Amino acid sequence: MSSNKKHTFLGIGIIMLILLITLQFLRPDLKTPPVTGEISVPVNVKAIFKRSCYDCHSNQTKLGWGDKIVPIYWQVAKHVNTGRAHLNFSEWDKLTPVEQKTKLWEAVNHATLGAMPRADYALIHPSAKLSTADIATLKNYLAGLVDHKASDTSKINAENAQYKLWINEKQEPVKHPVALNGIPYDPDYKNWLPLSTSDRFENGTMRVIFGNDIAVNAAKNGQTRPWPDGARLAKALWTQLVDTAGNTRTGAFVQVDLMIKNAQKYASTGGWGFARFKTLKLAPYGKTTMFASECINCHRPMKNNDFVFTVPVKH
Ligand code: HEC
Ligand code: HEC
Hints:
Elements: H1 3-23, H2 43-52, H3 54-57, H4 72-86, H5 97-112, H6 119-124, H7 132-144, H8 153-168, E1 193-198, E2 205-211, H9 213-220, E3 232-242, E4 248-261, E5 272-278, E6 283-284, H10 291-299
Antiparallel strand pairs: 1-2, 2-3, 3-4, 4-5, 5-6
Protein name: Heme-binding domain-containing protein
Keywords: Heme, Iron, Membrane, Metal-binding, Transmembrane, Transmembrane helix
Organism: Mucilaginibacter aquariorum
């Protein structure tokens, strides 16, 4: 190497160093807001959240020196700020009990599916990775929250009667409701084929997932990544009751969720149009059209599966 070239390299090196040092002063805002009301869970569960999630999902962020170096810091600050906006264990008191339950379930779900903690973060914080034992601890905790007590007979009879009304479509409104994002209720789903059933262990409900012909054919031919336009999926939900003999019974109809595939029309929500209709009155769910972002956010860990959880059973 000529001495001229050596000088050029040295010069570039010094300029980059100065640039890097100067950049350290360009710091996006990362506040430490007060803890208003922390989530209350058993210590072993809290320990897992603290280790793997708190840096981005609490006001008790503890950054390592490596996180504080710009440009890494820019990325970190962005993740902490958006992470807190989505889920904040330090401001748990700002959620209603129902929201708390949903968020907790969502958190465990993201962790179980490997979607959280973020892969880029886990790479530089290996201790944040969740072990099989951690996941078991989280799942056991959720399972323990379920109420396994037998329901009284009058409740069972009343809810069973509602289930029969659902089957016979006796009480459905004649004029079909439309969700705030323009998706109408689709009464046809009762005639679609069930793709699978599931009973979510943590909240005492039973559910059946149905698919229209396009969806069923796509599932048969393994064309579900992505699902074709026109595919429709429905998830119907009932309460699950336990009688005094310990038998599980289908109770009242709770709601039906719809996902309608149209890659272009619903591009902003993963190519799926979401809608939910509650109770036999089929009341559209959501206060604003933004309700669908709640749906897609929880379905996001299944991104590689075109946002669908259900693995269809083969017909
Ligand atoms: C490095 C930062 C970081 C860590 C660590 C992290 N998350 Fe996240 N999390 C985010 C960000 C950012 C989002 C917003 C969506 C996105 O960008 O993926 C998010 C979104 C979520 C959501 C979706 C919430 C909603 O309503 O949209 C859940 C649930 C979640 N994280 C749970 C967890 C859990 C549980 C852990 C620990 C096991 C964890 N996260 C660890 C950054 C993080
Ligand atoms: C708390 C997380 C969560 C939220 C919020 C959520 N879903 Fe889901 N969804 C699931 C899970 C998990 C499944 C898989 C079936 C099961 O276990 O119930 C599912 C299944 C579905 C299915 C059947 C297809 C599939 O992906 O398996 C439809 C349709 C559906 N959801 C629609 C909706 C709609 C519409 C909304 C918003 C109004 C919504 N979901 C909000 C978690 C969620």
